Amino acid sequence: MTTMRFRHRTTLILTICLMVIGYSSLYGAALEEYLGKWSLHLPTGAGWLDIRQENGHLDADVLWIGGSVVPVDHIYYADGKIYIQRLARKPVAVSSDRTHQPTNYLELEASGTKLIGRYVEPANDGHGAKSTVFYGTRIPPLPDPPDLSAVTFDDPISLFDGKSLNGWTAIPSERKSAWQVNEGVLINDPAAVSDDDHPRTANLRSDAVFEDFNLTLEVNIPKGSNSGVYLRGIYEVQVMDSYQMELDNHHMGALYSRIKPEVAAELAPGVWQTLDLTLCDRHLTVVLNGKTIIDNQPIEGVTGGALSADQFAPGPIYLQGDHGKVRYRNIILRTIIK
């Protein structure tokens, strides 16, 4: 089933790309057609791109599958296309006194609200390159912040029955799952199923999907560990041991790499903490241990590890399990009635 789904997704991407190529190769695209924010639909994940002009210069930020939103290393417009360069993290040794700096690049063509692209990753030794074809869709402007005092919620739904993994599926299927249930607690313990120092075990997603909602849960994170709660499968609210650390958009309660908490509210590792998360009209509110740390802030795009680039389709609750040990309980969701 996974192979068939991948083939269907790849075929769809190639079909859309060929349609856009047919248009843009005849007419080219003006620079203004590229400016703005784009969802990137990739064969193996999701990405995001923001192209803008600042002080007379082109600039951009990009998210490619996982990790953080980062600034590009260079961007330019020529012959109706956009070209973006991304330097590899580390130089490659060619000899004892010579290194190369591998450079990946994106080549983009725009047509209205569609974008097609090719991502090229040259081999470190200079022989050949991996090329990924993808497409993008323009992200509509954000609406005004919703009036949460006027929002109506449906009856609460318990997503975890405290006895089993019913209603949940480990993903990806080829990874070992370290999820188990013990005494009413949902536990992820990678060390219990792998002897590796840093095992990459499965994540866990709800079978049910949702639009906008309020989600409350309790989480217990050991010292130095890391997890995350993905809202609709695309927006990660970070779960990690960041007790007494400086505020950062990668720490507990942050929208990963996008929105930094306004105040620190995390507790010491190894104790139960509460998260109260409201997703409404592409705005996020996070209440951690009773303190509002993100207050109805706009979400510009998906975060690293998103299951999809589509910000408007219903999606699951998705718990990150590939980083370290974590425990969850009392996972309650209330959908927003519209």
Question: Overview of this structure, please?
Answer:
The chain is mainly beta. The protein folds into 2 domains: 2-138, Lipocalin (Beta Barrel), CATH 2.40.128.30; 148-337, Sandwich (Jelly Rolls), CATH 2.60.120. It has 1 helix and 25 strands. The protein has one helix spanning 2-27, and strands spanning 36-42, 45-54, 57-64, 66-71, 74-78, 81-87, 92-95, 98-100, 103-111, 114-122, 129-138, 152-153, 157-158, 168-171, 179-182, 185-188, 203-206, 213-220, 226-231, 235-240, 272-280, 283-288, 291-298, 318-319, 326-337. The strands form 4 sheets. A 9-stranded antiparallel sheet has the order 4-3-2-1-11-10-9-6-5. Strands 12, 13, 15, 16, 18, 21, 22, 23 and 25 form a 9-stranded antiparallel sheet that branches. A hairpin with a 2-residue loop joins strand 21 and strand 22 (283-288). 34% of the residues are buried.
Give descriptors for this structure.
338 residues, mainly beta, Lipocalin, Jelly Rolls, 2 domains, nine-stranded antiparallel β-sheet, 1 helix, 46% strand
What is the fold's blueprint, element by element?
Elements: H1 2-27, E1 36-42, E2 45-54, E3 57-64, E4 66-71, E5 74-78, E6 81-87, E7 92-95, E8 98-100, E9 103-111, E10 114-122, E11 129-138, E12 152-153, E13 157-158, E14 168-171, E15 179-182, E16 185-188, E17 203-206, E18 213-220, E19 226-231, E20 235-240, E21 272-280, E22 283-288, E23 291-298, E24 318-319, E25 326-337
Antiparallel strand pairs: 1-2, 1-11, 2-3, 3-4, 5-6, 6-9, 7-8, 9-10, 10-11, 12-25, 13-25, 14-17, 15-16, 16-25, 17-24, 18-21, 18-25, 19-20, 19-24, 21-22, 22-23
